[in-house]
Design brief:
Strand order of the largest sheet: 1-2-4-3-5-6-7-8
CATH architecture of the largest domain: 3-Layer(aba) Sandwich
Order of helices and strands: EEEHEHHEHEHEHEHEEHHHHHH
Shape: globular
Largest sheet: 8 strands, mixed
Oligomer: single chain
Radius of gyration: 23 Å
CATH class of the largest domain: Alpha Beta
Helix content: 25-40%
Strand content: 15-25%
Structural class: alpha/beta
Number of helices: 13
CATH topology of the largest domain: Rossmann fold
Length: about 350
């Protein structure tokens, strides 16, 4: 492993710690690696060491390069300076991607508390948005953000169709950052059909980091399962980025969005209501729709086929065709045909 500390601002004491793992040679089939950018919490007053190296080491064990951003805090934390620090860090990683063998399209941010606010801002407002965001007991609501700094933006209201998939975790009894921060973010992600996973544990303190006794008192009331967020989030990233195989990363099983309704062109991964409501799409899929009418039985005798399409409207057409075994040998052909139709 090669470690390097890069000073992004001497005046503000902003640094980027790079922990770069080997590729090639004994690491057969690995020519580049995905990466995580760890953003510790600390209320924008300091950067927590408990949420830095211990977290980075866990993801390095899973095969990721790890970077730690110690951003502007205290008197230098006036917004949007921390977000500018993030942008500078991502630019640095991009500039050195070839040297460090980083997959620049597979960089996830991991933020905690106030660092979760910064990571959330990166995912929703950043010029260089990450491919995924892991947010631990994050400050997200504007009301909560304003408690730790003036002019701090709320994150849920900035979620859009370009927001990356998110993994969120926290505890129901967090008395520092209410769990409603996570709930509001989930609702915002849901409005844009963005992929997410969430774990809210029944009890536990704010700022539990990795949940290990090595980083917090063993007397702290905290469920043993709470520390599983690390394994769960790594597994989630494998689903999203691909897992390690004989020739690098395997094909991902998760998509950035639950469906393609927000994209410019139709696809089989748009919802049935979106496709069936488009006259051009119905014309293009006329033969497939004929088969659907023959093989899909309405829920009740009174229901028409149109009623069924409305009832099943939230499903993607791909899922329905696969479930009912209709034209499964033509999925690529159908998807290509739909891809020529504007999603309006």
């Amino acid at each position: 492993m090669h470690q390097e500390i890069i000073t992004l601002s001497e005046e503000r004491n902003v640094t980027l710690t790079a922990m770069i793992q080997g590729v090639g040679g004994e690491f057969r089939g690995i020519s580049a690696r995905p990466a995580v950018l760890v953003i510790p919490g600390g209320g924008y007053q300091f950067c927590s060491d408990r949420e830095a190296d211990p977290v980075a080491f866990a993801f390095m064990k899973a095969g990721y390069h790890a970077f730690i951003l110690r951003y502007s805090v205290g008197e230098y934390s006036k917004w949007p300076q921390p977000l500018k620090d993030y942008e500078q860090a991502m630019e640095c990683i991009s500039d050195k991607a070839e040297e460090w063998h980083v997959m620049t399209d597979k960089i996830a941010v991991i933020g905690f508390s106030a660092g979760g606010h910064l990571a959330g801002a990166a995912a929703t407002m950043g010029r260089r948005r990450p491919a995924a965001a892991i947010l631990g007991y994050p400050v997200l609501r504007r009301e909560t953000a304003l408690e730790i700094g003036q002019n701090m933006p709320g994150i849920p209201e900035h979620v859009d169709e370009n927001t990356c998939p998110c993994f969120l975790f926290g505890t129901r009894t967090d008395s520092v950052v209410p769990v409603q921060n996570i709930v509001d973010m989930l609702n915002a992600l849901g409005r844009f059909h963005t992929t997410y996973e969430c774990h809210i544990y029944a009890y536990g303190p704010h700022g539990f980091a990795t949940g290990d006794h090595s980083v917090q008192s063993c007397e702290t009331l905290f469920p043993e399962r709470g520390a599983r967020w690390i394994d769960d989030s790594i597994s989630w990233l494998h689903d999203l980025f691909g897992d390690w195989g004989n020739e690098g990363l395997t094909r991902p099983v998760l998509r950035p969005h639950v469906n393609d309704d927000a994209l410019a062109w139709l696809s089989l991964d748009c919802s049935i209501s979106r496709i069936y409501g488009n006259p051009k799409a119905r014309e293009t899929l006329s033969e497939t729709i004929r088969k659907m009418k023959e093989r899909i039985t309405p829920f009740t005798p009174e229901m028409t086929f149109d009623d069924m399409m409305q009832a099943l409207g939230k499903m993607t057409l791909r899922d329905l065709l696969v479930e009912r075994g209709i034209d499964t040998d033509k999925l690529d052909e159908l998807n290509e045909a739909l891809g020529k139709i504007p999603n309006i």
